[in-house]
Amino acid sequence: MVGAVICIIATAVYAQGNIQRLGGEDTATATAQHFLPTTPLFQPVRTDSPRETIGTFVRLTREFEDALLAYQEDQSRANARQLKLLGPRFHHLFDLSSVPTVSRRRIGRETFTFLLDIIGRIDLPPIESIPDINAFDDDETLATWRIPHTPIRIVRIEEGPREGEFLFSARTVTVAPTFYRQVQNLPLHSSLEIESWSRTLPQLHGPMIPSGLVSVLPDSLKRIWFDTPIWKVLLVAILGALATLLLVLWHRVFNVRASENRIIVRCRHALTPVAIIVVVMTLRSFVAFEVNVVGTFAQSVFFAATLVIYLAVVWIFWLVVLMLFEWIISSPKIPDESLDANLLRLCARVIGFVGGAWILVYGAQDLGLSVFGLLAGLGVGGLAVALAIRPTLENLIGGAILFMDRPVRVGDFCSFGAHAGTIESIGLRSTQVRALNRTLISVPNATFVDMEIINWAKCDRMLILATIGLRYETEPDQLRYVLAMLREMFHAHPKIDRTTVRVRFAEYGASSLDVEIRVYALTREWNEFYAIREDVFLRVNEIVGNSGTGFAFPSQTLYWGRDDGLDKERSSEAMRQVKSWRKSGQLPFPQLAASRIEQLADTLDYPPRGSPGTDPSDAAVTEAAESLSAEPQLEDTDSAKQQTEPDRR
Prior knowledge:
By secondary structure, the chain is an alpha+beta fold.
């Protein structure tokens, strides 16, 4: 589909270029040559000297009168074609190098019409008295000849592709209309029964428009408006309205069905500008050849048609670039709402904008507009727009920074400011975050980049940090027993990083002896982290119970009954164990011996015995772990905050 669209664009641009290259002046001639392949043989246009130029103009005038007479007698396509082909041959006698390409057809035709009226009303000197090529020295700086009693000059072109030819000067374009008004009351010498070429030629039309229909039109519609009969202006307006309606219906028919595939959507949208190019070029050829508009109105029509074609080409270029980048996104299956996909789409839009601007600048130059003035205006306008959309630009830059630094990706759980949640999408303007309470937070990229972002998905290990308080009645050896058993348990646990184990008697609290536990769980997934922490806390509870002491309550208690006190049997056992360690020189303080650590490695069962999957004969083993992207619950925000504390081992 993309290749077909590109081929259509290339064909349209190639056709546009061919029409402009055929003299750059007569679109109708190119159209006639396309539809009628047989070409009559004309004598060559001679411009070797003023005599040859004037002689060629007089000869072409006779041929044009004969062709017009034949067309009036037989309104056939062949006669119309022969009449149309003569116009550009007159244009080859004029120096139109200073006229914009898009205006050369109109200016050349107007100048040719005025010269027909002027030279047909004055007496030319004998052909022998007009200078030939031998009348001018090659070293002469200015070779020129003026038609007697007129301001019209024939000059030798000194540079450019037509160097050395004698053409009607570029100033003729300016002086011909003025001088015609001075001689328009003189009789016209012509083989046709006409009073003025300037009033006759605008009434001509192509063979598809019946002469009988035109002849019955009221005189009010045959009046000249913008150098064109009013009936032609109305006909062009009606054709333009019908073409617009046809294109609107075309667009609705091909874009009525919704599609989630972005490439298919772009392809459907591209059909509209392709149709615009085809319809406008066809309509322009019809208006130029059949309706035969002239003068200022013709310039406006062809200017508008060329502008629409260039805009359609820009539209196609934009859609083709977007389709290519959507294909790139879909090929390696980049997540549709990821930052990578959004940045690629941003690059596509930048390329489309720059390429479209370049096409418009080229089109402006072709239309005769001042490119430098246009660029200066775009610069000033761009500055004003940039100031107006400064927040949007800041967000775009913020999105680019997120792309380069990559602090988060779609699906990562992170904390920022007073919020925490999972990244759902990173757009060009804002980042969407699904909060813990399932609300959607939209954060502008410029603000998000400036915030402190904690990306929990980047954790290689997860911190378990807790402080347990033992009762003040706990004996020192009981406390040592608890500390030793906790350290052994953590070193033995297969899901605890043994190099990070830190279990210490931290301080005397207000109502407890505080023991700080700080270890890292070997996991990056929240659900598994909670399971490991739960298992560790249950084992801590068992160790404290076995030591004979208990957890302290941060409150005051009034005992009305007799307190049974501590478990004397277990207390004695714990103290005897510590004495044995001391006597044997194996007291695990300030830390466990390296040999003991190696001995304890992975000796605990995890998951605990009796958990699902621990019994080999159990047929109901769980097939899948919980979701890897699970998030911490709201009540665990304190534990999440603990993760940010540095390791003080």
